[in-house]
Amino acid sequence: MQVQASTKARMGTSDFIDKEVAIKKGESIALVDTTSSTHIISNGTWQGNTAKPFIESGAPVVNNLNFAGNDSKNVGPFNTAGTFQLYCTIHPGMNLTVTVT
């Protein structure tokens, strides 16, 4: 049985509604697609219109996590303190910052 993440990062049509979330070490986040839009989430960020895929040391690996619309998936646990970046590979500028304390 998968444990529900208590912290949510909501996604809209082409951007994160919640662009930053803060959690404690050992917690996960729930990525929630609130629309019928497709999203593909990976480690990294957009810088302008250029995708910059990368995985920070200690980050859970998120590799092309697919959302078909109106669904939710957990990412984590985040076991290392720090700041981590996730982005949607198909929507330029769609970035999420996860701060872990």
Automatic annotation (TrEMBL):
Keyword check for rRNA processing: no
Residues covered by the Blue (type 1) copper domain: 5-100
Keyword Signal among UniProt keywords: no
InterPro entries found in the cross-reference section: BlueCu_1 (IPR000923), Cupredoxin (IPR008972)
Keywords for this protein: Copper, Metal-binding
Pfam families (UniProt xref): Copper-bind (PF00127)
GO terms, molecular function: copper ion binding; electron transfer activity
Stretches that traverse the bilayer: none
Name assigned to this protein: Blue (type 1) copper domain-containing protein
Origin species: Ktedonospora formicarum
